[in-house]
């Protein structure tokens, strides 16, 4: 197994640790940030999320640069991304900081695009992510991170940056999904 695939697997293995740190009420204390308390376990979880999200960029870069793209990597990488983002968004709903309807739309888009990619791969077609998808991913990562940190550092000035980023990421999620289906509709139209 090559290094990019090991990085992808490490991202998958970080997900349960992330979930446990966010879900179990550890008594490690918290930091008071303006009007909000940030539990230390949530801070550590946010760092794990950032590390896991960072491995996505590193493994992709490394695989392309050194021509280490494998079928296993093509399968695991998007799976790891969807698992990480879905877990984080569902936890944000449980925390009461993300509306369920927003998360349902975001996760539904991910399932729809994954379905289209499966149909394409059955036809021997590889559908690459476009620039809109990259913007979507970036806005989602920023929104998730800030919300996991209880809106730190913006909580000092009572500015709802995390919530604003959540809706911006929803906008780009929907827009990139529509763009992806329009550009690749021929896959559905021509499938046997």
UniProtKB/TrEMBL annotation:
<keyword id="KW-1133">Transmembrane helix</keyword>
<dbReference type="InterPro" id="IPR004570">
    <property type="entry name" value="Phosphatidylglycerol_P_synth"/>
</dbReference>
<dbReference type="GO" id="GO:0008444">
    <property type="term" value="F:CDP-diacylglycerol-glycerol-3-phosphate 3-phosphatidyltransferase activity"/>
</dbReference>
<dbReference type="InterPro" id="IPR048254">
    <property type="entry name" value="CDP_ALCOHOL_P_TRANSF_CS"/>
</dbReference>
<comment type="similarity">
    <text>Belongs to the CDP-alcohol phosphatidyltransferase class-I family.</text>
</comment>
<comment type="pathway">
    <text>Lipid metabolism.</text>
</comment>
<protein>
    <recommendedName>
        <fullName>CDP-diacylglycerol--glycerol-3-phosphate 3-phosphatidyltransferase</fullName>
        <ecNumber>2.7.8.5</ecNumber>
    </recommendedName>
</protein>
<keyword id="KW-0443">Lipid metabolism</keyword>
<comment type="pathway">
    <text>Phospholipid metabolism; phosphatidylglycerol biosynthesis; phosphatidylglycerol from CDP-diacylglycerol: step 1/2.</text>
</comment>
<dbReference type="Pfam" id="PF01066">
    <property type="entry name" value="CDP-OH_P_transf"/>
</dbReference>
<keyword id="KW-0808">Transferase</keyword>
<keyword id="KW-0812">Transmembrane</keyword>
<dbReference type="InterPro" id="IPR050324">
    <property type="entry name" value="CDP-alcohol_PTase-I"/>
</dbReference>
<comment type="function">
    <text>This protein catalyzes the committed step to the synthesis of the acidic phospholipids.</text>
</comment>
<keyword id="KW-0472">Membrane</keyword>
<keyword id="KW-1003">Cell membrane</keyword>
<keyword id="KW-0594">Phospholipid biosynthesis</keyword>
<feature type="transmembrane region" description="Helical">
    <location>
        <begin position="12"/>
        <end position="31"/>
    </location>
</feature>
<feature type="transmembrane region" description="Helical">
    <location>
        <begin position="83"/>
        <end position="107"/>
    </location>
</feature>
<dbReference type="InterPro" id="IPR043130">
    <property type="entry name" value="CDP-OH_PTrfase_TM_dom"/>
</dbReference>
<dbReference type="InterPro" id="IPR000462">
    <property type="entry name" value="CDP-OH_P_trans"/>
</dbReference>
<keyword id="KW-1208">Phospholipid metabolism</keyword>
<dbReference type="GO" id="GO:0006655">
    <property type="term" value="P:phosphatidylglycerol biosynthetic process"/>
</dbReference>
<feature type="transmembrane region" description="Helical">
    <location>
        <begin position="164"/>
        <end position="182"/>
    </location>
</feature>
<keyword id="KW-0444">Lipid biosynthesis</keyword>
<feature type="transmembrane region" description="Helical">
    <location>
        <begin position="43"/>
        <end position="63"/>
    </location>
</feature>
<dbReference type="GO" id="GO:0005886">
    <property type="term" value="C:plasma membrane"/>
</dbReference>
């Amino acid at each position: 197994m090559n290094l990019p695939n090991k990085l992808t697997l490490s991202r998958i293995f970080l997900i349960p640790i992330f979930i446990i740190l966010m879900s179990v009420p550890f008594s490690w204390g918290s930091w008071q940030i303006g009007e909000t308390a940030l539990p230390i376990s949530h801070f550590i979880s946010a760092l794990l999320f950032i590390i896991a999200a960072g491995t996505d960029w590193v493994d992709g870069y490394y695989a392309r640069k050194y021509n280490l793209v494998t079928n296993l990597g093509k399968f695991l990488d998007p799976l790891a991304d969807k698992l990480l983002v879905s877990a984080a968004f569902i936890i944000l709903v449980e925390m009461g900081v993300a509306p369920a309807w927003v998360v349902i739309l975001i996760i539904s888009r991910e399932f729809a695009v994954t379905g289209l990619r499966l149909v394409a791969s059955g036809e021997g077609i590889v559908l690459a992510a476009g620039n809109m998808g990259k913007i979507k991913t970036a806005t989602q990562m920023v929104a998730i991170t800030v919300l996991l940190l209880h809106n730190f550092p913006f909580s000092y000035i009572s500015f709802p940056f995390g919530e604003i980023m959540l809706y911006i990421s929803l906008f780009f999620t929907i827009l990139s999904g529509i763009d992806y289906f329009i550009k690749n509709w021929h896959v559905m139209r021509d499938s046997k």
